[in-house]
Design brief:
- By secondary structure, the protein is of the alpha/beta class.
- Helix content is 47%, strand content 13%.
- The strands form three sheets. It has a six-stranded parallel beta sheet, sandwiched between helices.
- Helix 1 crosses helix 18, helix 3 crosses helix 5 and helix 5 packs across helix 6.
- It is elongated, with a radius of gyration of 22 Å.
- The two termini are 26 Å apart.
- The C terminus is likely disordered.
Length: 422
């Protein structure tokens, strides 16, 4: 279960589902909303074709709510009351929970009828609220993965979500500490596991050696064009590099609400001819484009409304390709990028420090190569898609075993999860 599907920027969910199926897990997809996008990953099509899309209000949704209300009024109202009490104080979260409740009731009855044995929600926000509703109404256990802004922007009900979950997953030590601080019982803290997002290290392979790539100095930044990604500071840094006489080519992959502002900023800085806006690309197209990169930058920043990155998958993809990276010292990013070992870290929002790190990599091809090689090894060891999907699948199996379910058909190797010791 996720907020929107198929969403181009959430490749980690798509790839995780595909990896789960390879491990023998029967995967059904329950998006809260259908994403209407001009560009989607080809691999998403088979999931889209069988996804359980449902309008927020329809005769089917109304019928499911009326039947449950008539047969189990106390359960219906107590669940609705708990959701509304838990989300009050945040208008955005409250209205969102109110909007998804009828659909969650419908999903609960459909899941019960079709034999769904476990719900895994991606994001600690509204998808996990829906999972709580489903568990309370029909008893299907759930787990969830907390990523970045979904965890840091609004933590209402977080302790309750962990308490009612079979287990909770997050993608970094940093996030795990945040989650554990909301737990009231020691036993709940033990439920919080770290399972990194992963990338397909076979798709994201090394390209040509960095010192063989021609000028200009080519910098890529992959991600939604949004304040939280910090592209404005990258443009400022590139302006400084050009002022120092460095021939720079900045490539922004992705789209978003800040596109026009970034275009205007590049024009005002008189480097518009050096900045290419590629728009949205599939992950295969990104893998191909990264072959031409000297450096990938991820200048993430915390936003005024509380958003912040977890560990950007785009960084993992670049590192898997053996590309040197410069990133912000923020949230869980230092758990992926070890400063001076597998990349360079800078203070979030410091365009000068970002420019200095980029200039250093421009001047030292040997450093680029050393960091790039170490970066790929880091991803192979800790952020490989299939290894981490096996860890999550083993957690699913442990829930199924406790509940007497046999919905997982997993190879024996999955029985020994590789998650980090708590």
């Amino acid at each position: 279960m996720m907020s929107r599907f198929p969403k181009l920027t959430e490749t980690f969910i798509l790839h995780e589902m595909a990896a789960m199926e390879r491990l023998g897990v029967d995967v059904d997809v329950y998006p809260l909303w259908r994403e209407r996008a001009r560009v989607t990953h080809p691999e998403a099509r088979r999931f889209v074709e069988r996804a359980n899309f449902q309008r927020s209000f329809s005769l089917a949704v109304l019928g499911a709510n009326c039947r449950l209300l008539f047969r189990h009024p106390r359960k219906y109202f107590s669940t609705l009351s708990a959701v509304l009490r838990g989300t009050r104080g945040s208008l955005r979260f409250f209205l969102g929970a109110l909007a998804i409740f009828p659909k969650a009731v419908f999903f609960a009855k459909r899941m019960e009828a079709t034999g769904v044995a476990h719900v895994h929600a991606h994001f600690a926000s509204h998808p996990t609220v829906a999972a709580i509703v489903i568990r309370r109404l029909v008893g299907i256990p759930y787990s969830f993965t907390a990523h970045g802004s979904d965890l840091h922007r609004d933590q209402r009900m977080l302790g309750q979500k962990i308490a009612e979950a079979a287990f909770a997953v997050t993608i970094s030590d940093y996030n795990r500490n945040v989650m554990m601080a909301t737990c009231e019982r020691d036993g709940d803290r033990g439920k919080v596991r770290i399972v990194h997002c992963g990338v397909d290290t076979r798709l994201f392979q090394r390209g040509s050696a960095a010192d063989e790539r021609p000028v200009p100095f080519t910098i890529f930044c992959v991600g939604t064009l949004h304040e939280v990604k910090g592209q404005t500071f990258l443009i400022k840094a590139c302006e400084q590099l050009v002022g120092s006489g460095i021939d720079v080519s900045l490539n922004l992959i992705g789209d978003g609400p800040d596109r026009q502002a970034l275009l205007a900023q590049a024009a005002e800085a008189m480097i518009a001819d050096r900045v290419t806006f590629h728009g949205n690309k599939t992950h295969r197209e990104v893998a191909e484009l990264l072959k031409g990169a000297h450096v990938v930058a991820a200048p993430s920043v915390p936003t005024r409304d509380g958003r912040r990155e977890g560990i950007p998958v785009a960084l993992m993809e670049a590192m898997s390709c053996g590309v040197a990276v410069v990133a912000s010292r923020l949230s869980g990013i230092p758990e992926l990028v070890a400063d001076e070992q597998s990349g360079l870290l800078v203070t979030p929002g410091d365009a000068g420090a970002l420019a200095q790190a980029l200039e250093r990599l421009h001047n030292d091809a040997g450093l680029r190569q050393r960091l790039g090689e170490a970066a790929r090894q880091k991803v192979l060891l800790e952020f490989d898609l299939f290894k981490n999907a096996a860890t999550l699948a083993a957690l699913f199996k442990s829930v199924a075993t406790r509940g007497g379910n046999t919905f997982l058909r997993l190879p024996a190797a999955v029985n020994a999860p590789a998650e980090r010791a708590l």
